[in-house]
Amino acid sequence: MKNQAGSGEGASAGAGAAPDAGADPAEPQEALAGVVARLRDELAGMRRAMRNRAVIEQAKGMLVERLGVGPDEAFDHLVRLSQRTNIKLAEVAAALVGATAPAPETDQPAAFLDDELDQYLAHARRRAAGRPVPEQPRARQPEVEALQAQHQLLSARITTAREYPQLAETVAEATVGWPAPAAVSILLRDPADQLQPVGGYGDDAAAPLAAAAGTAFSDSDTVWVADTGDATMRSVLAVPLSAGTEVVGVLAVGWREPTELTAQAHRYLVALAAPIGGRVGRLTTAELPATEADPTRAVLDAVPTPGVLLGPVRDDEGRVVDFRFEYANAAAAAQLTALAGPDATDRTLLAVLPDTGSRLLLGEFARVLADGEPARLGDVTIDAAADGTERSLVARFDATRLGDGVLCLWQRRSTAEALHDQLLQAERIGRLGSFRWDLRTGAARWSPEMYRLLGRTEEQGALPLSDSGEYVHADDWYAVQEAIRGALLAGRAFTVEHRLADAPGRRLRLSGEPEFDSDGAVWAIRGTAQDVTEERAVESQLRRAQEALAAQKQRLRAESRAAESMRDALLPTDPELTATPGISVTGLCRSSEATGRVAGDWYDVFALRSGPAGASTYLVVGDVAGAGLAATVAAARLRNAVRAYAVLGMDPGELLSALNRMIGELGAGQLATLVVARYQPAEHRMQWAAAGQAAPLRYAPDGSASVLTGPLGLPVGAAPDIAYQQAAVDLPPGERLLLYTDGLVVRRDRTLASGLEALLHVGEHVDLGDPAALVDHVTATLGSAPDDDLCVVVAAPTAE
Fold first, then answer.
1. One domain, residues 74 and 186
2. Which domain holds residue 313?
3. What is the C-alpha to C-alpha distance for residues 498 and 512, in angstroms, rounded to an integer?
4. Which sequence ranges form a coiled-coil region, renumbered to this chain (predicted)?
5. Which of 22-26, 60-64, 513-517 has the lowest mean pLDDT?
6. Domain check: are 520 and 599 in the same one?
7. 3-class secondary structure, 719
8. CATH assignment of the domain containing 574
9. For the segment 339-353, what is each residue's pLDDT rounded down to a tens digit?
10. Mean pLDDT of 590-619
């Protein structure tokens, strides 16, 4: 067949290549183009055949191995399959090979869980598989078809039932799949959380029936007792009835003889609880009222939750002062009776609930009546002690205006429900979701916030552990794997952070712990996931701020060291202090420990051997505004300028005026305070001038002191063209003169007078020739350390 097809193909090609007897010899170019096109097609076909040959050979090899046939027989199998399916031979071979080929590799690891963890999960599932589970048939059997048909019929009857006894009869009449029951009972929860029968069939008051119903209600789970040991009712099935997420009652079915239910019968019998639960609150225990009944009351009666129609009670001025109960449905009447007694609905709102009514409900209901806007009050607590009720409860209230009254519905909230909502709100506020992975079944359970964190809907469902890696950034896979490995293999709790794969800017912190079975094996992992993106961003900002602060502190320390070194270089050396004819001078500069920075305080002492005033010694104490290196540099400029002007023979007043002009002309914008004094030993005379600094103090030989009188000018740089005045005083040997900056006497917690008082008496207590002792005594007297840097200079004329 293959050879014949090839011969036919060649014959066709040869026939196509033969020149047409009727062809026009005048068109050789068109004939040549046709030949070139044919040859190109043949070449392309040959290339395709060569590419296909590899996959065909692979398919032949697979068939040889699996069918135990030779290569030719394997090829014949491929050909026959191609002919039967009308699919090209190469495509058939590719499909066969592709079915067993591994998936192409990706840039990420092949699986979120590596082989070791995957084997652990497989082992957990195998252990769980050892427990009996209902067999799920692959196809519906005839008995299943019959059960399904019966279920559809019963569901329709339940939907059209008008009272609870009809529901019980409907269940009792169903006998496909199980024996006819001897009793059917429908019980509903009353306001006191007790079960009350509302519809029954047969011996529905049997004790085993009530006991199983109570257990199903309290556990919110189906109860099947194959043999109760009670002759009145040997087998019992009790199924909780749910309205939404709330258990509102129980369907109980009983048989007098021991009964066995197949898995399918059990399933379909339990499934009847769903349509019955949907009818709870819409039925009565007797016939519905006639059509002439009040439609508002009919609506309230049809509502499964407690509801009342309230009428306003007004005072003489028309203000709403209370509400009376116009009508209450059965559920509301039952709850009000349980709260305040059988006459509750005959009283007013404030009479039943004096505290909650006056504090909250009355105002809200009056507003609803006035503006027509509905009100929703969440988790209102009715406290038995405050309201004088029989019990406390928590409920949600909804109120809306209806005619001249207010329609109020409420839903009682159990402590567990309130705490559940509180937990959900806490998760939302904290951006924290919770999860649980069951290793035996592979199932996962997420809280609502977990879905929001991962951008997944509840309809999509929670991802099992093995698929959760799609949300983990590839660079964080290893850290998450190691955390899960520790939980599965070592039973350790873990906390690990990772970035999201689709949003690397977001970070989640996973915290989990393993759950153990009775054998000590890990069978589940539960934990939380919290969005810590903002937390990490704040930490990053704080870290950068701390780094910037540390760098700033480092710069300040370096600047402070440089400023201190420069200031020390500015201060006169010991040789300079001893080279002052006719006068002995000591000085001290000290930085404040409170600021940790070097301020602009400085002093200078230098002697001139000649000049217009003859030999003289200059004493200078100054304070430049500011601190740090800039203030120290400014102090160095002033020091050099003072020395230059002194060499020119300027007296203290002229010298300060010149400094002020210099600062103004240079535009430095600098302020400084100074005291400049010039001592002429030949006359024992001291001339001085002050610019914004305190006047010097004069100490007599007995230690008494006085403040020198004289003009005090503004700081240099404060205003242009200031003419500073000077004063003179005789300073004979034995007396002393003190020049100081304000840091010595100024304190935040003391007045300036207190500092001056301490200075005036310091000579009575310490040797004025010791500046350090002088400063320490003043500090001790004032009771606090200096707030700023300080400088002092003490000068004592000698007899020479």
1. no
2. 305-417
3. 14
4. 535-566
5. 22-26
6. no
7. coil
8. 3.60.40.10
9. 888 888 888 999 999
10. 81
Strands (E) located in 299-404: 307-314, 320-328, 375-382, 393-402
Q: How far apart are CA 275 and CA 155, in angstroms?
A: 6
Q: Which residue has the tokens 């004819």?
A: 581
Could you tell me if residue 473 is inside a domain? yes
Q: How far apart are CA 623 and CA 675, in angstroms?
A: 9
Distance CA 615, CA 343 (A): 117
In tens, the pLDDT along 294-314 reads: 677 777 877 778 999 999 999
Domains in the chain, number: 5
What DSSP string runs through 86-133? T--HHHHHHHHHHTTSPPPP-SS-S-SS-HHHHHHHHHHHHHHHTS--
How far apart (Å, rounded) are the C-alpha atoms in residues 650 and 613?
Answer: 9
Percent pLDDT > 90 in the chain is 29
599 token code pair: 């301020």
Q: How many angstroms separate the CA atoms of 280 and 239, rounded?
A: 14
Q: Same domain for 578 and 714?
A: yes
**Residue 349, pLDDT score:** 93
DSSP states along 399-419: EEEETTEEEEEEEEE-HHHHH
Over residues 96-109, the pLDDT tens digits come to 654 444 434 434 44
> pLDDT digits over 190-200, tens only?
776 788 888 88
739 and 631 inside one domain = yes
Q: Classify residue 469 by its DSSP letter.
A: G
Q: What is the pLDDT of residues 711-730, one digit of tens each?
A: 999 999 988 889 999 999 99
Asked if residues 429 and 421 have their Cβ atoms less than 8 Å apart, the reply is: no
d(CA 224, CA 457): 35
The answer to whether the beta carbons of residues 528 and 433 sit under 8 Å apart is: yes
Distance CA 309, CA 605 (A): 100
The torsion defined by the Cα of 607, 610, 615 and 620, in degrees rounded to 10, comes to: -40
**CATH number of the domain that residue 409 is part of:** 3.30.450
385 in the same domain as 249: no
Name residue 607's beta-bridge partners.
617
Q: Which H or E element spans position 236?
A: strand 235-243
Q: Domain check: are 651 and 779 in the same one? A: yes
- The residue type found at 313 is V
In this structure, the answer to whether residues 507 and 595 fall within a common structural domain is no
pLDDT tier at 706, thresholds 50, 70, 90: very high
Mean pLDDT, the chain, rounded, equals 81
Tokens 């299943």 correspond to: 144
Question: Are residue 320 and residue 253 in the same domain, yes or no?
Answer: no
Checking if the pLDDT of 632 tops 80, the result is yes
Positions of E strands within 315-360: 320-328
Q: How many CB atoms lie within 10 A of CB 591?
A: 21
Domain boundary among 417, 448, 467: 417
Mean local confidence (pLDDT), 161-187? 84
pLDDT in tens, 569-584: 778 877 777 778 889 9
**How many C-beta neighbours within 10 Å does residue 583 have?**
23
